[in-house]
Amino acid sequence: MSDPVLSVRNLSKSFGGLKAVSDVSFDLAKGELLALIGPNGAGKTTCFNMLNGQLRADAGQVRLNGTSILGLNPRRVWRMGVGRTFQITATYASMTVRENVQMALISHHRKTWDIWRPASGLHVEEAMQLLDLVGMREQAERAAAILAYGDLKRLELAIALAHAPELLLMDEPTAGMAPRERVRLMQLTADIVAERGISVLFTEHDMDVVFSHAHRIMVLNRGELIASGSVDDVRNDARVQEVYLGGGTLFEGQAHG
Amino acid sequence: MSFYFAQFLTGLSSASSLFLVACGLSLIFGVTRVVNFAHGSFYMLGAYVAYALVQFVPGSILGFWGSVLAAALIVALVGVVVEILILKRIYNAPELYQLVATFGVVLLMQDAILLIFGGDDQFGPRAPGLDSVVRVFGEPIPEYDLVLIALGPIVLGALWLLLNRTRWGILVRAATLDREMVASLGVNQSWLFTTVFFLGSFLAGLGGALQLPRVSINLLMDLSIIAEAFVVVVIGGMGSIPGAFIAALLIGELNAFGVLVLPQATIVLAFVVMAVVLVIRPYGLLGKAETLAHVAGQVELPIRPASTLAKSIAGLLLIGLVVMPFLAGEFAIVLATDVLIFALFAASLHFIMSNGGMVSFGHAAYFGLGAYGAAFVIKYAGGSMELALLAAPLMAAAGALIFGWFCVRLSGVYMAMLTLAAAQIVWSTAYQWQDLTGGDDGLLGIWPSEWAKSKTAYYYLALVLCGGGILAMRRMIFSPFGYTLRGGRDNPNRTESIGINLRQHQWAAFIIAGVFAGIAGGVYVFSKGSIFPDEAAIPRSVDALVMVLLGGVQTLSGPVVGAGVFRLLEDEISRLDYWRAILGVIIISIVVIAPEGIAGFIKKIAVKAGFERNEEQAS
Ligand SMILES: Nc1ncnc2c1ncn2[C@@H]1O[C@H](COP(=O)(O)OP(=O)(O)O)[C@@H](O)[C@H]1O
Ligand SMILES: [Mg+2]
User: Considering the entire predicted model, what is its pTM?
Assistant: First the structure.
C-alpha cells in the first residue's frame, strides 16, 4: 500500500474534565472512503474540527502527505488541499448558487483582493462545471437562501470541490435529508471522489449509507476508537454491537427515525 | 497624600453616579438586547423632573429625597411608555434599527424637555442636612459625595437581592443568559421586558435626580452621560451588573486621577481603556460570549447589476446634476453640494455596514478626521486646497487603520460600541486639544482655491469627487473584494473555511470606508469654510446611520436616496422651533413602519409592477 494521504496519531482533546477525543489514531489511504461513526456526542465533530484547524488539539499528530498540519489555521489547511462540508450547512444566503461556488473559486485563485473587476464574470465555466457535477446546474441562478435542504447539501459539496481537494472532510453530509435522497447524495459523492481520486473522511448516522458506501469504518465511543475495519468486521464486532444495539444507546439514525 | 485620598473619594462618588446609570442600561441590554441610546435621556429627564418637584411643589411636601424618588418613578413610567409604544415593535429588528429608533427618542426627549423647562442651565438646591463639607485628613469632602459613595454599593446589593432572591429576578437572569429558554418556559416575555424597562429607567432617573445638588442641569446631559455609560457597560460586560460596578469604579477613578496627569485627555482615556479591555477580553470583564445567534433581520437577496430602468434613472439623475447649476439659484447649488457630500459619507458607511455587516456607530470619526486633516493643511502647513483634499482621506485612513485594527477583532454590538468609542476619542480630542483644533471655537477661514471659489465651481468639484467616490464604491461592491465582505457578513465560518482571511479583508474595507468618509469631510470643510468638533460627534454618526436607513439598508442606491431626502428634509424642518422632535418622530416612524427604507420601498413597487426582476421568477 502506498503512503497514506492522512495520518492521525494520538489525537486528543478535552473540554474541562470531559475527554471529548482521546488518543485517536488512524490512516486514510488515497481514494478511500472512511466512515467515522459513533453515538451522538462521541466526539466526531470535535475530531473534524481539530483536523481542519478550527479547534486546537491537546495532543497528537496529524500529517497530510507527510506534512504536519496540526496547529495550522483553517485557511492554511484549506490551502493545503483539505475541503470540508459542515454538519449545519454553511452557504452564503445572499448570493446565488453560482456565486457561492464562484466565491470558493475566487479564493482558490487568490483573487479576493481584486477591487475592480466584476466578480460575477470570474470562473463562470468552472463554477458551472462543478454545479453540473452535483446536479445543480439548473438552479445556478437561484438565491441560496431559498434552496431546499438537500440542494444546499449538494451546493456545499460543489463548494468543497472547488479547490480540487485531495481530502474531503464531510460531517454528516446527509443529515436532515429524506432516506432516498441520502443514498443518492452519497452515491454521487462516491462517484465524484472515485473519479478524482479524492480521499474522504465522513461521519454519518444512517447505517444504510455507511454500509453501502464506506470502504472502511471506524467506531468512536466517548472519544475513544473502539473498533475499525471493513464493513463486515465492524458489523460483527461485539463491542460495537454492545455500544449500539445492546447497551441501550441507539444508533443515532434510529434515534432520529 | 491626603490630597490623593480626597481625589480617590471624588472618584468613588462619580463611580457611584455612573454605576446607577450604567447598571440600568446593562440590565436592559442583558434582557432585551436593545442598545438603548435613550437611557441618557431618562437620566436627563430624572434631573429635570427632580428639579421641578423640588422647586415647584408647594410647601415642599416631598422634600429633597421624596422629590428624587418621585422623579425616578416618573421617569420609570415614561420609560415604560416608550417601551410599549416603540421598542415592543422592534425587538426582532437588527441592532442598527433599534439603535436608530432609540436615538429618535433622544431627539424627541431633548425637545420635550426644552419645551417644558426651557434651554437655560438650571441649578438645583443642596440636599438638606448635607450641604457642608467634612474634613478627611484635612481635605474638604462634600457630605453629599459621601452619601453617593455609600449609595453605589447599596444599589448593587439591592439589585443582587432582587435578581437572586425573587422569582422575577431569576427570570431576568435566565433571560440574560438565554432569551429563547425563557420564552419556552412559557413566561410572559412581554411583561418581563416591560418590567425590566421600568427598573432600568427608574435607575437612570434616580441617577439623574441625584445629580441635582452636584452639577448644573442642562440639555447636554443626555449624550455626555450615555457615552460614558456605554463605556462602563461594555467594559463590565454587557448584561453584567457586577461588571458594571467594577467598570464604574475603574472609570470613576480613572477620571479622578487622569485629570491630574492628563487634564486634556480625560475623555479619551476612558475610551482607550475600553478599547484595550475589549481587545483583551472581547466580551468585557465579566461578560459572556453571545449565546444567541445574532438577529438576522430580513433575508437578503443577491445583488444584481442595475436593471435598464435603474440605469436610466441614474443616467437622468446624473444629467440633472450636471445641468442643475444652470437652472437653479445659488441656494439650491449650496444645498446640492451638501447632498453630494452626505451621499458620499452615507455610501461609505453603507459599504462596510450593509455590504460588510460591520455596524459602525461612530462613522463620524472619519468624516471629522478628514475635515480636520484638510483644515490642518490650510491652517498649519500653508498648503493649498488641492493638497488639503489629499490630506483629508489620508488622515481619515490613518484613523481607520488604527481603529479598524481593534474593531474587526469584535463583532455585533461589541464592534458597534468600539466604533462609537473610536468616534468619541476623535471628538473629544478635537474638543479638548484647544491649541491644535481651536476646541469648541473650531478652525475658521478655510476656503477653496481661487478657481473653485464660486458656488458653482465648488459644486462641480464636489460632484466629481463625491460622485466618483460613490461609483467607485459601487464598483467595489460587485468586485471579488466586495463579494468577500458580503460572504463574511453572511457566514464568517464558511469564509474562513474557503481559505479567506476575513479579518484582513474587513480591516481593508474599514480603511476604504474611512478614505471615502474622509474625502466627504474634506469637501465639507471647504464648503463651509470652518470645522467644529461637532462634525465628529454622536449626532453626526447617527446622521449617517439615518441616511442609510432612510434610503434602505439593503438597497445599493439607498445611501444616495437617503442622503438626498435627509438633507432636504433637514433643510425644511431645521427652520422650525422643534425640528429635533420632528426628526425624531420621522426616524422612529421609518424604523417601525418602513424598515426597508425609501429606495427599498420603491424597488418593491417596481418589482410588483413588473419593471424589475423578481428573484423567484428568475429561477
Ligand atoms: N466547544 C465545546 N465545549 C465544551 N464541550 C464541547 C464542545 N464541543 C463539543 N463538546 C462536547 O464534546 C463531546 C463531543 O461532541 P461532538 O464532537 O460534537 O460529538 P459528535 O459530533 O460525535 O456528536 C460532547 O459531549 C460535546 O458536548
Ligand atoms: Mg457532530
Answer: 0.88
Smallest CA separation from ligand 1 atom 1, residue: A15
**Exposure string for B90-117, b = 16+ CB within 10 A, e = fewer:** bbebbbbbbbbbbbbbbbbbbbbbeeeb
CATH class of the domain at A6-80+167-172+202-245 = alpha beta
Residues pairing with B135 in the sheet: B140
Residue spans per domain, chain B: 2-220, 308-537
Summarised one tens digit per residue, pLDDT across range A157-201 is 999 999 999 999 999 888 888 888 888 888 999 999 899 999 999
Give the integer Cα–Cα distance in Å for B161 and B411.
Answer: 33
Ligand nearest to the CA of A37: 1
Q: Which of A11, A14, A15, A243 to mutate to test the pocket of ligand 1 (most atoms within 8 A of CB)?
A: A15
Beta bridge partners of B260: none
Residues of chain A with pLDDT under 70: 1, 245-257
State how far the Cα of B586 lies from the Cα of B400, in Å rounded to an integer: 31
Q: Which of residues 480-509 of B touch A (CB under 8 A)?
A: 480-484, 486-487, 489-491, 493-494, 496-501, 505, 508
Burial of B230 (0-12, 13-18, 19+ CB in 10 A): buried
CA distances from B6 to B85, B149, B264 (A): 46, 12, 21
Per-residue pLDDT, averaged over B131-143, amounts to: 76
Cα–Cα dist B22/B232, whole Å: 6
Residue B61 confidence (pLDDT): 66
For residue B493, report the distance from its CA to the centre of ligand 2, in Å: 16
Does B260 contact chain A (CB < 8 Å)? no
Torsion B469-B470-B471-B473 (CA) sign: positive
- In this structure, how many other beta carbons lie within 10 angstroms of the beta carbon of residue B158? 10
CA atoms within 13 Å, Cβ hemisphere of B200: 33
**Contact state of A116 with B479 under an 8 Å Cβ cutoff:** yes
All residues at 6 or more sequence positions from A175 whose CB lies less than 8 Å from its CB, including other chains: A87, A205
pLDDT digits (tens, 9 = 90+) for B339-381: 999 999 999 999 999 899 898 989 999 999 999 999 999 999 8
Q: Where are the domains of chain A?
A: 6-80+167-172+202-245
Residue B31 has pLDDT above 60, yes or no: yes
Cα B164 from Cα B436, distance rounded (Å)? 52
First to last CA, chain A: 39
Residues of A in contact with B299 (CB under 8 A): 93-94, 145
DSSP B307-374: PHHHHHHHHHHHHHHHHHHHHS-HHHHHHHHHHHHHHHHHHHHHHHHTTT----S-THHHHHHHHHHH
Cα–Cα distance for residue pair A218/B109, rounded to 1 Å:
66
- Inspect the interface and report whether the beta carbons of A118 and B476 lie closer than 8 Å: no
